[in-house]
Every structure is written in structure tokens, then in C-alpha cells.
Amino acid sequence: MKLALIAHDGKKTAMVALAAEFLPLLQRCQLMATGTTGGRLQRELGLQVECLLSGPLGGDLQIGARLAVGEVDAVIFLRDPMTPQPHEPDINALVRACDVHDVPCATNVSGARLMLRAWSEPGAV
Ligand SMILES: O=C(CO)COP(=O)(O)O
């Protein structure tokens, strides 16, 4: 399972907590993340994560490009709906790419939990 993990600053602690909750599953996945999110997951949970560029510097677009060629199976993107982002067009492009290519994309913790629980079933990943 190739999983992309992305969180805006206001959601990074929630992302780390979510990843801790599903640690055994995530340890079996091939993980990629935008730079700062990935750094926290590596440092705080010891996960192996391929860190791409930070979101505002093009990380969302890198994940979108990989997704478009079949290199991403699912995305967890914890967006902060209360804070304007300078790279809003990149964020929209990534979510659009998920819809274009029918790649599952959870944009909040509850949706992400449903996704990760389904993949925690024996034989799912
Ligand atoms: O801005 C982001 C996603 O749009 C996240 O990027 P970072 O993980 O580098 O903070």
C-alpha cells in the first residue's frame, strides 16, 4: 500500500496521533509525505517516510504528479479549513487529482480512521 500523508500546521499533531493509533499498519505501508509532516512522523514515531518538498514549496504537487501515474494508492490529507493557505491552488490540484484518478482521499480524522480501519482487516493490505 502506497500511502501519502499530508497535514497543515494546525492538523499536524492530529496526524501524528492518528499515525500512532495505526502504527502497525503504517509500518507495513510505503509512506510518502510533504516535508514537515513527514519529518514529524519520522522523529516522533520512527516511521520510515519518504519526505518530499514542503507543501507551500510544491510538495502537494509532487504527490499529485505521482498519483497521476499510479504511484499512490491513497491519500490522507488533514486540511485546516480555518486557515488560509498561500498554496491553495496546489491543494485543490491534489484533491482534484484524487477525484480524476479515483484514489481514496480522507481530508479529516474521522474519514482517515474509516480508511485505515478498513485496511487493518486481515488480508486487506
Ligand atoms: O502545506 C502542506 C499541505 O498543503 C503541508 O506541507 P508540510 O507537511 O511541509 O507542512
From TrEMBL:
Catalytic activity reads:
dihydroxyacetone phosphate = methylglyoxal + phosphate
- Report the NCBIfam families cross-referenced here: MGSA, PRK05234.1
> Is the keyword Lyase assigned to this protein?
yes
Query: Which Pfam family is one of this chain's hits?
Result: MGS
Record's keyword annotation contains Lyase:
yes
Q: What is this protein called?
A: Methylglyoxal synthase
The protein's job, in short, is:
Catalyzes the formation of methylglyoxal from dihydroxyacetone phosphate.
**Molecular function per GO:** methylglyoxal synthase activity
Entry keyword set: Lyase
Q: Which domain of life is it from?
A: Bacteria
UniProt family annotation: Belongs to the methylglyoxal synthase family.
Q: Where is the MGS-like domain?
A: 1-125
Q: Which SUPFAM superfamilies match?
A: Methylglyoxal synthase-like (SSF52335)
Q: Where does substrate bind?
A: H8, K12, T34, G35, T36, T37, S54, G55, H87
Q: Which residues form a coiled coil?
A: none
Q: Cite the EC number.
A: 4.2.3.3
Active site at: D60 (proton donor/acceptor)
